[in-house]
Specification:
heterodimer, A: 172 residues, mainly alpha, 63% helix, globular, B: 772 residues, alpha+beta, 19% strand, elongated, disordered N terminus, disordered C terminus
Chain lengths: 172, 772
């Protein structure tokens, strides 16, 4: 149990470091999702399509294996983001969200793009949406709260930013 | 540069006309007056030809089908989509727009298409199915695995100006040389030699006309035909003939032969598709053969060119024999002129016409959805831009879902009328389906006859929503966990209200029973009226109105006690907004029908991005959604639950209004929300409740599109507690009928039910003591 908490904390810190080290333009955008890894740390809690037992006239729905499509779209979004083509990056992430609408990582990334586009309200809302789906992933919730803090600060909401920072620390 | 070239050509042309019409010099006076007229014609010619040559209608597309490993999609669904897109089933796909199916594998040669976020290349795909999902996707040439691919989207409509001309512009290099050779052979052999008019054929025509005492024959060149189509009315007078010749000369003086030829290829009229006029060989090729110009066979080229003489007279769908004779005549001409060898010509004549079954685009297949698209566009674009700039509009419509929705509504209403001995065609209905989390509208039906383009009930029929309002009443209550939980006791005893002096209102339950004390959870699951009114009055009607507004309702709402039972006239679209926010866990997203608009040259003009706004804390919404799952599992929509099985986790609510005038069902699965209304246009009673009218339609729709199980997300503000449903108190292993209900942390009852054996009670009390 303690080992798991430590691991999660470490993973969170590492991913933050990676995010900081990788970019000079912005430290907000999350690191690239590794191929072969589940696309979301909260993947266990992400409602995968389970088979419906006795479907009378329902077309059978079988569990979908992890979607390489989403990983590919995130990679595309990442390189579009690096090239500062933020509209395209957002479009790729929206396309990924149509495939996995409840993947909290995708909502977090879209929030990061909106933040760079200075659409602070949407950045905050999408980070909140990511949190609502994040389930047990504390590191993701911490990053969402950090993002919300940055966006609130940019909007001039300093008290709100401080309270978001406190929330972020709770999850770290 | 361009002006210089043009003036040189003009002087060359005038020299030529001077040489060839010496008699003109005798009519100097006439010419002087004519010059003024020619200048006028010249202005028209140049403006028309150089300016906007054609008004291009906006094209409206459905969503593109995404293919990726792990996607739920039956092979038959893919084949249906390919058929809708006009792909041809062949043995070996070689060209874009062809596919072959071999058991669980489908090979598709996709078409290239430019989307708002880049171009999808044409490629040869191999799609492997395992049952009803895609097991593998690869590019067939090198066997490379692909992460995902998009098919080109289905064009669902065009938005026209009043004059319904449509065309698919082609450029000369795209056009097969054989087509041009055939066209010139049949229509204008001297095209590259003459200067707009051909005096020889003109003279021949004039003689014929003199003999007949009127205009019976035209010796028109391609240029003259173009002028005729382009600038002039269809009357056959000598004035018009004069204008035509003058303009043809002017056109030739200003523009190169290839420019004129290209314009002709795009302008020529080639048939009628309902109210839509098919212009140009590019569109005609798709209209008759469902393939691009580049892929036409010689006999198909011969047919198209032959039809120019009389597109309706030689209509290959209505007059196949006549069309074939004409085609063969053209082929003979090509052999005679050496364009085709005798063998090639003979082979071509052996082949059938090859015309595809008519798949009309003009009929505007989904008028109700398009209505919504137009309303949205009219906020952002001027009408003339929509009908002339060739905008490309990418919508959210899912043709599979739309077809399912249209069929479900039409068939179920017919069935209900038959089973209940109702007069045929008296019931009406509407259905809207959206994708969870993005609020994209997947399907929208506003009439049981989906082609009927009259009253759009999905957008415009505002009817009382009945019990569909109840989740909002209870949400208002559960947002105050210190006052209300799912295990709160409510009073289901007779109630008399005096909303205004002299006005007495005594709400009753649907089954006319009074149950005394009932749990809040059960009051919602079984849709009891009286407890709902009491809760609403306790919370305050204003608060319930505020909740409905927060959820996204835009229609008129009055904070009267009767609001608690759904005395609010809302459209299905408004109801979708409300339930979308519930289904998305308190996040409100504007319902969207459009994803992006591109200019004719594919430059993005506007995106309609995904937007969310958290308007409710997720925790009380989870309590409501969990209870709505119980409505389907064991409440008023139990028939839906039985149909799809307990593990589907579907959440929903029925709604019925006074005297059974309106039947509603709103429900959501793991990936879709759908709202159904059934009623009569004259607002008469029809004898259907929400569970006997709208819910079966909803079920038919979901059965067709497939149900993704709904698993509600977790929340750290929620705990799940075993409850004894008889007492509303905590249960343990001693309670036989115990159920698990969610509570906001700290709000669950402390006390244990009489049935509790006490095995757990003591340790937990001891544990709690540690924290007190």
């Amino acid at each position: 149990m303690i080992a798991a908490v430590r691991f999660l904390a470490l993973a969170g810190i590492l991913s933050l470091l990676a995010a900081c080290a990788g970019q000079t333009v912005s430290s907000r955008y999350p690191p690239v999702i590794e191929r072969g890894e589940p696309s979301a740390p909260g993947a266990e809690t992400y409602p995968s399509h389970e088979p419906v037992p006795p479907p009378v006239s329902v077309p059978e729905r079988v569990p979908a294996p992890s979607s390489s499509a989403v990983v590919a779209l995130v990679e595309r979004a990442d390189s579009q983001y690096q090239a500062q083509d933020l509209d395209a990056a957002a479009a790729s992430l929206e396309r990924a969200l149509r495939i996995e609408p409840r993947n909290p990582q995708l909502w977090h990334r879209l929030a990061a793009v909106r933040l760079d586009q200075r659409q602070f309200d949407q950045a905050i809302q999408m980070a909140a949406k990511s949190n609502s789906l994040a389930g047990g992933s504390r590191s993701l919730q911490a990053r969402n709260w950090q993002l919300i803090a940055t966006a609130r600060r940019a909007k001039g909401d300093l008290a709100g930013a401080q309270s978001a920072d406190r929330k972020a620390r709770e999850f770290e | 540069m361009a002006t210089r070239r043009r003036s040189k050509r003009k002087s060359r042309a005038s020299r030529r006309s001077g040489r060839r019409f010496p008699w003109l010099q005798l009519l100097v006076v006439l010419v002087v007056t004519a010059i003024g007229y020619l200048v006028y014609l010249d202005i028209i010619v140049r403006e028309q030809f150089e300016g906007k040559r054609w008004a291009l209608p906006a094209r409206v597309y459905a969503r593109p089908l995404e293919l990726y490993t792990g996607r739920m999609l039956a092979p038959d669904q893919l084949i249906q989509e390919l058929d809708r897109l006009g792909y041809h089933a062949v043995r070996e796909p070689k060209h874009p727009g062809e596919y072959a199916r071999a058991g669980g594998t489908v090979h598709i040669h996709t078409r290239s298409f430019t989307f708002w976020d880049g171009t999808e290349p044409a490629q040869l795909l191999r799609v492997r199915f395992a049952g009803n999902w895609i097991e593998g996707l690869s590019e067939r040439g090198q066997g490379r695995e692909l992460d995902l691919a998009r098919l080109d989207p289905l064009q669902i409509a065009s938005i026209y100006p009043t004059l319904q001309e449509d065309r698919l512009l082609v450029q000369l290099p795209q056009v097969p040389p054989l087509l041009i050779q055939t066209l010139l052979a049949v229509e204008d052999r001297q095209f590259y030699e003459h200067f707009g008019i051909s005096p020889r054929s003109l003279l021949r025509a004039m003689l014929a006309n003199l003999r007949a005492g009127g205009v019976v024959q035209g010796g028109s060149t391609l240029t003259q035909q173009l002028v005729k189509n382009f600038f002039l009315s269809n009357e056959r007078t000598f004035t018009r003939k004069f204008n035509e010749a003058g303009m043809a000369l002017l056109l030739e003086a200003h523009y190169a032969k290839d420019e004129i030829l290209e314009a002709y290829l795009n302008e020529v009229y080639l048939g009628q598709d309902g109210p839509r006029a098919v212009h140009g060989l590019g569109l005609a090729s798709h209209f008759y053969f469902e393939r691009p110009l580049e892929q036409l066979e010689p006999e198909q080229i011969a047919l198209l060119v032959g039809m120019i003489k009389g597109p309706s007279y030689y209509d290959p769908r209505k007059q196949p024999q006549r069309a074939q004779q004409r085609r063969d005549l053209v082929l003979d001409l090509l052999i005679e002129q050496g364009v085709l060898s005798a063998e090639e010509g003979a082979r071509a004549k052996q082949r059938p016409l090859g015309v595809q079954q008519r798949r009309s685009l003009a009929a505007n297949a989904h008028p109700a959805f398009l209505d919504l698209v137009r309303r949205q566009l009219q906020r952002d674009y001027r009408e003339e831009d929509l009908t002339s700039e060739g905008l490309r509009i990418f919508t959210t419509l899912d043709p599979m879902a739309q077809t399912a929705a249209e069929t479900a509504l039409a068939e179920r209403l017919t069935q209900i009328e038959r089973n209940r001995d109702l007069p045929a065609n008296t019931l009406q209905g509407a259905l809207i389906a959206t994708a969870l989390d993005s609020a994209e509208i997947l399907a929208l039906v506003g009439d049981r006859n989906p082609r009927g383009s009259g009253f759009n009930r999905a957008l415009d029929a505002a009817r009382p929503i009945g019990s569909l309002v109840k989740p909002a009443v209870y949400l208002s209550a559960l947002a105050q966990p210190q006052r209300y939980t799912l295990a709160s006791w409510l009073d289901d005893s007779p109630l008399k209200l005096v909303p205004r002096p002299g006005d007495i209102w005594e709400p009753g339950n649907y089954d006319k029973q009074f149950r005394g004390p009932v749990l809040l959870h059960d009051a919602l699951v079984h849709s009891y009226n009286i407890p709902t009114v009491r809760v609403g009055l306790d919370i305050g009607p204003d608060q319930v109105v505020a909740t409905l507004r927060q959820l996204g309702v835009q229609g008129n709402l009055n904070a009267y006690p009767a609001l608690m039972l759904g005395a609010a006239d809302l459209t299905p679209l408004d109801v979708i907004r409300m339930y979308q926010t519930l289904a998305d866990g308190g996040f409100r997203s504007p319902t969207r029908a459009i994803r992006a608009v591109l200019a004719a040259d594919a430059t993005p003009l506007q995106r309609y991005p995904l937007q969310v706004e958290q308007v409710f804390d997720a925790a009380p919404i989870l309590l409501i959604n969990s209870t709505l799952q119980d409505v389907v599992r064991a409440g008023t929509a139990a028939a839906v639950g039985a149909r799809f099985g307990a593990d589907s986790g579907i959440a929903g609510k029925t709604g019925t209004t006074n005297d059974l005038r309106d039947s509603w069902f709103a429900g959501f699965t793991g990936d879709q929300l759908a709202v159904v209304w059934v009623g009569r246009d004259d607002n008469q009673a029809m004898g259907l409740t929400g569970s006997s009218g709208a819910a079966p339609v909803w079920g038919d729709y979901m059965a067709r599109v497939g149900v993704a199980p709904l698993l509600l997300p977790e929340s750290d503000k929620i705990e799940t507690v075993w409850i004894d449903p008889a007492s509303g108190l905590r249960a343990d292993t001693g309670c036989a009928d115990a159920v698990q209900w969610p509570f906001m942390i700290g709000s669950a009852p402390d006390e244990y039910a009489p049935c509790a054996s006490g095995d757990f009670a003591k340790p937990i009390d001891w544990f709690k003591g540690l924290f007190r």
